[in-house]
Design a protein that fits this description.
Dimeric_a/b-barrel, globular, Alpha-Beta Plaits, DUF1330
């Protein structure tokens, strides 16, 4: 099942030179794990709550490859280039299949909650 790496970034302009190097090197760290950008540094249109940063979403074929990428020596080496200069929240999350049914999930959760 597809998995995603999501970054909520709070850039502090101007960007540090390290961030440019990070951007130049990240794709090569993703390639061995089948990763690709879904969105990269886009400012979201916020409808609820507040968020003043940018969003990055990476897609991987599955959670094992998403974890493999994040934990890889190649990616671990470049993390400080971003993390030292851009406050961020980084997370990995499983996607849902094409047959996902929100109504069925809601009903199952309701039933489970009732015991």
């Amino acid at each position: 099942m597809t998995a995603y790496a999501i970054g909520l970034l709070h850039p502090q302009p101007p960007l540090h030179e390290d961030v440019f190097v990070y951007m130049e090197r990240i794709q090569a760290t993703m390639d061995p794990f089948g990763g690709r950008f879904i969105t990269h540094g886009k400012t979201p249109e916020v409808h609820e709550g507040t968020f003043d940063g940018a969003v990055v979403i990476l897609e991987f074929p599955d959670m094992d490859r998403a974890r493999g990428w994040y934990d890889s020596p190649a990616y671990q080496e470049i993390i400080p280039m971003r993390a030292d200069h851009i406050p961020s929240v980084i997370m990995l999350v499983d996607g849902v299949g094409a047959d996902h049914d929100s109504a069925a999930l809601g009903a199952a959760l309701r039933a489970a909650q009732r015991g």
